[in-house]
Amino acid sequence: MSSSSNNPTSLPIPPTPNNPNTTIIPTSPVTAQSPSLKKQVFFSKSKSVLKKASRKLFNWFIFTVIIGLMPITISIIFGNFDHKLSDVFNLFIHGELLIICFALAADAMGDLVSNKKMDKGIGYVLFGLCIVWFTLSGFVFAGLTIVASYVDVEKYIDKQDVGIFSIYMLIATLLTSMSCKILTEA
């Protein structure tokens, strides 16, 4: 008699010439339904999605954000070379950063809509934030432009306040846009 018949919790013993009474219990083959394979497929998909999302986020950051900020960066560099730029906030008084915020928010809204990620609750929240940043940066830029056409902006508007507001808007829009990019790849 085999040891598997004496102890029901022991593993079956393969048949050998010395033990012909041993029964073979077939094990289930590894299929798509097996938990170990599901786990492997899940992690391989997760890695590929993460890799694809990080590549898309990297490309977005380089080609949209960095290259989008190049004109302002070049103005800062060349303005400091000839010593005509006494204050960095002089660059922001006309709302250049707000135009970049406007474009980033529009791009993020377009990604959410085109990738059909609006059905998730977080999609609605991010879309709403993009609308807020889009509208706010548009109205402030329009206001600065209108005021600049009638009066000398530097006399009536504090350039540091506009600069700090523009930087905060840029940071908020970047974080929201980055979240939208991540959501569209999830």
Please render the helix and strand layout as text.
Layout: H1 3-6, H2 35-68, H3 70-81, H4 96-114, H5 121-150, H6 153-156, H7 159-185
What is the helix/strand order?
Answer: HHHHHHH
Question: What is the approximate shape?
Answer: elongated
Low-confidence stretches: 1-5
Instruction: Give the percentage of residues in beta strands.
Output: under 5%
- Multimeric state: single chain
Task: Report the strand count.
Answer: 0
- What helical percentage do the residues reach? 55-70%
Largest sheet: none
Distance between the termini: 57 Å
**Rg to the nearest angstrom?**
31 Å
The whole-number mean of residue pLDDT values reads: 77
> With helices defined by DSSP (H or I, 4 residues minimum), what is the helix count?
7
Structural class: mainly alpha
Verbal overview:
The chain has seven helices and no strands. The chain has a domain at 57-185. It has helices at 3-6, 35-68, 70-81, 96-114, 121-150, 153-156, 159-185. It is mostly helical and 186 residues long.
Short characterization:
The protein has about 190 residues and is mostly helical. Helix content is about 70%, strand content about 0%.
Main attributes of the structure:
disordered N terminus, mainly alpha, 7 helices, 70% helix, 186 residues, elongated
